[in-house]
Known about the structure:
By secondary structure, the protein is an alpha+beta fold.
Amino acid sequence: MKTEAFLPVTAEQLAALGIGDVAYIRTMLGDGGARFHVVCLADGRQVGAFTDRDTAFAAARQNALEPLSVH
Length: 71
């Protein structure tokens, strides 16, 4: 059986995985209890907020990103 060695991954390298490919959609509560669906890049940057989940997913896809739900 062949085993493989893995090199350590830095926090910066881990954060960079998926940049340009993936968008995370997270539901957050705003002021006054309003619910928003926030589009975040793989490194955590928030790039959009929508009141409708489907619109958040569509916005990610329109920008060539694969949307994923985050709970």
